[in-house]
Structures
1.
Amino acid sequence: MKLKHIALCIVGCGIAIYAAAQNNIAEEVAWVIGDDPIYKSDIERTYQEMQQDRQTIDGDPYCFIPEEIAIERLFLHQAELDTVEVQEAMVQQQADAQMNFLISNLGSREKVEQYFRKPFAEIREYYATNMSNRYRVQQVKQSLTKNVKVTPSDVRRYFNNLPQDSIPFVPLQVEVQIVTINPPVPREEIENVKARLRDYTDRVNRGESEFSTLAILYSEAPEGVRGGELGFVGRSTLVPEFAAVAFNLNDPKKVSKIVETEFGFHIIQLIEKRGDRINCRHILLRPKVSEEDLTKAIARLDSVRSDIVDSKKLDFETAARYISQDKDTRYSNGVMTNPETGTTQFQMSQLPQEVARVVAGMKPGEISMPFVMKDPRRDREIVAIVKLTNRIDAHQANLGDDYQLLKGMYEDFTKQAIIDKWLEKKIADTYVRIEDGWRGCDFRHKGWIKSK
């Protein structure tokens, strides 16, 4: 079989990785899988990637890494046999995101090319290929384990058979309800912001200032530090109001009209279009809430809290439904959902910082005094009260409190057993040669070294 060259993994930081690959490492063959060699340079590069990303290496890296590369190549071969199709649009979007990350860290497209000593398009193709391969491997694994079904009795039996030292320790968790009010932004503040943006537009159009310079100096968007450049993105990655204007721009010398989104007010400059993707710059200004309006919002929520706690005229759930302006929780009685787990339970580090600070000193059933916090989406000040509905102290996992956690562990265990069994057969059916100097390893999977 003929397998395509791959790297073991894509590392989030992605900077030292590709540059390291440019070194002239002797092309010594370490393994052969089918008729596809694994070179020492593949192993060295992957080792540098894993160190850069601080990934755990189980044992000797010169045993662990070539085995992992070989395993991934087996999955890729199966993907070819199964004709696994890659969602090209998704791969391109992820490759663009990786390149935007590099630009953000190194400062510009030109500096990325200088750092890697390669053309930008070639660097991008490197990441696109790796992302495509990773997706193909994932699809094969999902196909192998798609019929796994878990019942409560399976989870119970799995938990009862776990050694005591394998039962996970669960940190302190809380469940929280929230009611928020978004103080109105004064009309005068909005007009001031628009006037500033119109001034920036005039300065660019008159040739007095570069758009990128103004973005560095004044934009409140994270991209401001790199001249407001977003990098190539698809329409779906942008909020609709922004996308509608950006994708209608045709002249890179012109600046868009002012665009209002949930994040604030923008002006946009086109850099380049490529099919259904666009690269543009923008300057974002956010109107500020006045201290007077914050004080009024605090007073209003203080009155709401009094109606709940003192006079019993209201309950927290009703306040969440009819008073709260938080669109993520108002239709769930104010119950906050953890975006990382999809459950209502949060570790303290997973809560917004201001909420965690308030909740830390509360008991279940208590309702906080009003406090000011940052809206995580729009980075503007809002006022909130929270109710601590449950506190689960740090403990070893048990079926009563941590069923979903243990269910996930059992699912992972079952899927891995299926994959391991498939790998054993795949290894047995595949030509494998490990060169002298690379054999003295305690490999995780059996059958790599064929008996004569």
Note: The first helix runs from residue 16 to 20.
2.
Amino acid sequence: MSIYTKNGDKGTTDLVHTKNVSKSDDRIQLEGTIDELICHIGVVKTMISEQDTIRFLEKIQGNLQIVISGVSDPYNREYKINDDKTELLEEEIDRLAGLFNCPKEPAVPGANRLSAEIDVTRAVARRAERVLATVSVKFGSDTGTKKYMNRLADYLYILARYMESEASGKAGKEIENARNEMPGEDTEKLWPQNGEVQKTAGESMSGKDFPGSSRNQEPASIDEAVIQAVLRRIGVPGRITLDIAKKLIEKIEQEALRRGKKAVIAVCGPDGNPIAVHVMDGAFLVSFDVALKKAYTSVAVKMSTMELSRLAQPGGTFYGVDKMDGGRIVIFGGGVPLKSGDTIIGGLGISGGTGEEDHSLAQYALSILPELLQCS
């Protein structure tokens, strides 16, 4: 059976009792908007771990399918939304509202990815409700459906606020738990109080200052050990895995071939130790060591080697840094720190062309890294 019928090639479609209806017709617009809403709910389901909520959302999707059928066949009583379905929404709204203190002022979407996606879904639900009102004026509609669509948007609003509250509470608990798990004698050092500083941003991985660095720079308020503990608890990768490194290298190689470049690609962990190195056919022999050093440098100084090269010029903040650390620091483009959010999870070094060419490839890698991390 073919997926396409060609029946709608002229911009028309059929309803159960009406043929050749223009796709610009409000009823067709309503069907399409509700279909869009069903798909958005599907996205939300993939982001939620609570099985009861997922099952409830699946029931909503089923009810919306009934609404679509009712638009096409308005005289069929099987496609009516009864008050019981709306009452279930109200019960769930009341249950969620009893679990947290919902803000009285209108919420600004975007507190986290999940709640933002639910708010988008809510906005689509409101749009579907408006189109339904238009259809109701022109063609009539099921009263129960109008009540259900109105309450559905309310449910999605409270669900988004609940998920924000849950995320906020979880983050606070994880930080507190991580702090409590640290050795008691070191707690105050790991969590400076009243602005106390234990380690400044100007310090290197070895604890020594880079030339020209200042102890007046903004301090790191939380020790890396605490950060890693929190990241492990909430599921954020603390270091790049071999699997992700291999996938990243493969993508970089494909892009390098497209550009006509031959390079060595190295990935290291946040500690600077190599995770994977790939040598493309025809790459320069010297590029192997250079790529490793670029990856190491990017995590050692927490910036790209292109940026470091500008700061390492005579008179610059990091002038002479390339003479440190036994020659492992390099100051030409092609090395970048790899991050998950604001956390450095590794370093990338590319060597084979000019510094600008290698840096451009590294920037391409950064653009695709979030997708690879999300799919992992």
Note: Residues 143-181 form the longest helix (39 residues).
